[in-house]
Design a protein that fits this description.
The protein is of the alpha+beta class and 109 residues long. It has a domain of 48 residues: Rhinovirus 14, subunit 4. Helix content is 33%, strand content 17%. The protein is built from three helices and three strands. Strand 1 and strand 2 form a beta hairpin. The chain is elongated and about 100 Å long. The relative contact order is 0.08. The model has no long low-confidence stretch (mean pLDDT 84). Bound molecules: zinc ion. The site of zinc ion has 7 residues, from loops. The site of zinc ion (ZN) has 7 residues, from loops.
Length: 109
């Protein structure tokens, strides 16, 4: 090995998992803190477990809740359509035009 380019190697670095398990590995860091290990990972335990270390689920639920509140205040397509139909019904009818005439007759000058 070339001298003075390699970091210090700790053959028995302590690994501390969030679940509480500790074990040793070889590392350039004397102590490692991990979020998950083979003792608590769902792949090894066979159990479904939600890992929310960055509070992502919580944040998503907050965002989804906000959307639901906004959607509750909004009016649906059906309501809008009904209102448009009602407005159309109350509107005074247009003057009848001859069926063949595409353009309205020019204003008299
Ligand atoms: Zn663990």
């Amino acid at each position: 090995m070339k001298p003075e380019i390699h970091p210090k190697y700790y053959p028995d670095a302590k690994v501390i998992c969030a679940c509480g398990r500790t074990f040793t590995v070889g590392s350039t860091m004397p102590e490692l803190h991990v979020e998950i290990c083979s003792n608590c990972h769902p792949f090894y335990t066979g159990k479904q477990k939600l890992l929310d270390t960055a509070r992502r689920v919580e944040r998503f639920e907050a965002r989804a809740g906000k959307q639901t509140v906004a959607a509750a205040g909004r009016k649906g397509r059906k309501v809008k359509k009904e209102r448009a139909a009602a407005r159309k019904a109350t509107k005074k009818p247009k003057l009848e035009r001859e069926p063949g005439l595409s353009k309205p007759p020019a204003a008299s000058s």
